Amino acid sequence: MDRSESGPYQRSGHYLPYTSAVPNLTEPITRARILIVDDQAPNIRLLERLLTSAGYHRLYSTTAPEQVAALVGQVSPDLILLDLHMPGLDGFGVMQQLQGRLNDERYLPILVVTADLSVEVRQRALGAGAKDFLNKPFDAVEALLRIRNLLTTRFLYLQLDKHNRGLEATVQERTRKLEIARLEILERLALAAEFRDDNTGEHTRRVGRLAGAVAREMGLSGDTALTIERAAPLHDVGKIGIRDAILLKPGPLSPAEFDEMKRHTVIGADILSGSKGMLLRTAEDIALTHHERWDGTGYPSGLAGGDIPLAGRITHVADVFDAMTHPHGETAHDRRDEAIDYIRGESGLALDPDVVAAFASVARRDRMF
């Protein structure tokens, strides 16, 4: 509102809508938005004349300190000129109301304008969030210099924050691209291992799709379910380190050979280890634990119950079902019901009962699996 309107707000110059653009220090610092808070209108007019003469035109003011928090939210000032001693809500109360904003902004300077600059008042004001002081009656040149110094610091903070956000976004994007590239390489390794005993190479993809569907059926978040769906295809990547004589042996494995086959879980976890990304950390858990059993008799570590990572428990069920319905890479639809019954029978033994229940719902609803 302009001066002809009633109420506590006065504004000099033309109103400019708030913009999130950070002023560049090569541009006039007079573009700053300055809020003046004083219960005495003559004091406000004095500061407005001083600032206008120095080229500042984005000025906002109020004589009602209880309205400052709302006004700060509306105009997003770069500097607040605040009187300390006001009836009702004083300057200390205003700063207390602005604490959340001051913390969010990192550096929103408050220049306290007061005739009382005792040591106690200065210490209390600094503790409340003030950045500098201007003693009444003030020298015009000193006032403008203090204002300019605070605004310069403000804009440097904003530029640094903008630069840091840009760097963070760049790092996140590069990390994402590196993670995708690494995942693609590992997926190709998984397919290479899978092709050795499944010439279609589809087992890993099917296990991933089913694991994702079960995760969603269990009510896991979309991001978590997608992570499991993308990580589960890597469950057998460790087979790349198992000898063909064992991996492709047509008959049953001897105890020694089976012990060597078990090592594909550890090999896979080693291949996938060391990543800071959630996707590959999940894949590492799956590779290591997808042969652990709910009753603690699985391998490689004999984990039981909830000690087995959920992603590993889900992938275990998906892996068993696909192995039974696609022996040697071939489709065996006639074994679908048998596989479902088998998995239900293993609930509470080899398999997590909650995962089995979710799997049964998915299998009953969707026959594509």
UniProtKB/TrEMBL annotation:
GO terms for molecular function: cyclic-guanylate-specific phosphodiesterase activity. One of its GO terms (biological process) is phosphorelay signal transduction system. The modification 4-aspartylphosphate is found at D83. It holds the Pfam family HD_5. Residues 33-151 form the Response regulatory domain. Keywords: Hydrolase, Phosphoprotein. This is Cyclic di-GMP phosphodiesterase response regulator RpfG. The lineage of its organism: Bacteria, Pseudomonadati, Acidobacteriota, Vicinamibacteria, Vicinamibacterales.
